[in-house]
From TrEMBL:
<keyword id="KW-0460">Magnesium</keyword>
<feature type="binding site">
    <location>
        <position position="116"/>
    </location>
    <ligand>
        <name>ATP</name>
    </ligand>
</feature>
<dbReference type="InterPro" id="IPR000623">
    <property type="entry name" value="Shikimate_kinase/TSH1"/>
</dbReference>
<feature type="binding site">
    <location>
        <position position="14"/>
    </location>
    <ligand>
        <name>Mg(2+)</name>
    </ligand>
</feature>
<dbReference type="GO" id="GO:0000287">
    <property type="term" value="F:magnesium ion binding"/>
</dbReference>
<keyword id="KW-0808">Transferase</keyword>
<dbReference type="GO" id="GO:0008652">
    <property type="term" value="P:amino acid biosynthetic process"/>
</dbReference>
<feature type="binding site">
    <location>
        <position position="151"/>
    </location>
    <ligand>
        <name>ATP</name>
    </ligand>
</feature>
<dbReference type="GO" id="GO:0005829">
    <property type="term" value="C:cytosol"/>
</dbReference>
<comment type="subunit">
    <text>Monomer.</text>
</comment>
<feature type="binding site">
    <location>
        <position position="75"/>
    </location>
    <ligand>
        <name>substrate</name>
    </ligand>
</feature>
<feature type="binding site">
    <location>
        <begin position="10"/>
        <end position="15"/>
    </location>
    <ligand>
        <name>ATP</name>
    </ligand>
</feature>
<dbReference type="InterPro" id="IPR031322">
    <property type="entry name" value="Shikimate/glucono_kinase"/>
</dbReference>
<comment type="pathway">
    <text>Metabolic intermediate biosynthesis; chorismate biosynthesis; chorismate from D-erythrose 4-phosphate and phosphoenolpyruvate: step 5/7.</text>
</comment>
<dbReference type="GO" id="GO:0009073">
    <property type="term" value="P:aromatic amino acid family biosynthetic process"/>
</dbReference>
<feature type="binding site">
    <location>
        <position position="134"/>
    </location>
    <ligand>
        <name>substrate</name>
    </ligand>
</feature>
<dbReference type="GO" id="GO:0005524">
    <property type="term" value="F:ATP binding"/>
</dbReference>
C-alpha cells in the first residue's frame, strides 16, 4: 500500500516520512531533481501553472510504484482536480497531518532553508485564506487525520504505521 501524507506547508510531512519504516518519496525533492532548480526559482521563472503540471505528473508516477511506500506531497497538491482524483483512488491510505494556522505560520516564517514562494508573496491574511481553502480539500480526501502540534515525528510515524 502507498501511504500519502497530505497537509499544509510546514506541518511536518517530510520530517514524519523519514521515521516511517518503508521507502519514502518526497515530491518536492523529486520535482527539484526533475526541473534542475529550487521550486522557488521555477515558480519565479515559469509560474505556478507550469509547476502544478509537473507536480501532477510526479504524483501520478509515484502512485503507480508497486512497493509499499510513503509519499510526502507538497502543500498545494490538492489544488488540482486531477490530483484530487488520483488521491481518491488511493482511498484508505491518505493521511492528513494538521496543526493550527498560527503554529504553521510561525514554522514557515522561521524556516530559512525552504523559501516558499506562496508564503513570500502573500499577506498573512491571504495566507490564512489559502490555509482555510486547502484544509477543506485535504479533509475531503483524508482517511486519517493526525494533529502534529504536541506529538513528536516518531510518535506520528508510529500512528501511521498502525494503519
Amino acid at each position: 500500500m502507498t501511504i500519502v501524507l497530505l497537509g499544509f506547508m510546514g506541518v511536518g510531512k517530510t520530517t514524519v516520512s523519514k521515521h516511517i519504516q518503508r521507502p519514502f518519496y518526497d515530491m518536492d525533492r523529486m520535482i527539484e531533481e526533475k526541473i534542475g532548480m529550487p521550486i522557488a526559482d521555477f515558480f519565479a521563472r515559469e509560474g505556478e501553472v507550469a509547476f502544478r503540471k509537473i507536480e501532477s505528473e510526479t504524483l501520478e508516477e509515484l502512485l503507480q510504484v508497486e512497493e509499499d511506500c510513503v509519499i510526502s506531497t507538497g502543500g498545494g497538491v490538492v489544488i488540482s482536480e486531477k490530483n484530487r482524483d488520483l488521491l481518491r483512488q488511493n482511498q484508505k491510505y491518505n493521511v492528513l497531518l494538521t496543526a493550527s494556522f498560527e503554529v504553521l505560520y510561525h514554522r514557515i516564517k522561521q524556516d530559512t532553508l525552504s523559501q516558499r514562494p506562496l508564503f513570500l508573496k502573500h499577506s498573512k491574511e491571504d495566507f490564512y485564506d489559502m490555509y482555510q481553502n486547502r484544509m477543506k480539500l485535504y479533509e475531503g480526501l483524508a482517511d486519517l487525520i493526525i494533529r502534529t502540534e504536541n506529538r513528536s515525528p516518531e510518535e506520528i510515524a508510529r500512528i501511521i504505521e498502525c494503519m
